[in-house]
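Sanity check record (used in CI):
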Amino acid sequence: MDEHLKETLVDSELVYEGGFLKVRRDTVRLPDGKTSTREYFRHPGAVVILPVFEDGTVLLERQFRYPLDQVFLEFPAGKIEPGEDRLNCAQRELLEETGYTAKHWEFVCTIHNAIAYSDEFLEIYLARDLTAGERQLDDGEFLDVFRAPLADILEWVKEGKITDVKTIIGTFWLEKILNGTWKK
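Expected output for GDP-mannose pyrophosphatase:
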């Protein structure tokens, strides 16, 4: 159906390989037969957790993000380890970062947050029936955890206080799920 838009790989080179990111430079054949270069990040994928309490409040994090030199308000999230089941990753990340576990988990959707320069995907999960426990932060990981009403989170998105794309998309999904507009 969309074959007239497809680019075909001609050559590929690894430009950089870090701890979990890789940068590739590919030569591709365009639909008109010409060639072009595509540079992009290879990423193992990640999970995002929408943790909702019985009273409807939502668990969020405040975390400093070095590339933008600021603290962001975010949903708990984390990188998928090689061979790791995605739901298991979500459960692990929620416990490690927040100390909470959840009895009920529901897959929400997959998003691609940087399609022009990365193959990263994020699997979003809804977590309910939360129980508090001990956080198990990774070495070098520092973050604060807090609860907020969904109405406040929506207002923070509107005001530009939340700019993290996974958190914005998760907030909009959560609003629709909790008000019954979108049923999973």
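The chain has a mean pLDDT of 96. If this sentence no longer matches the regenerated tokens, the check is flagged for review.
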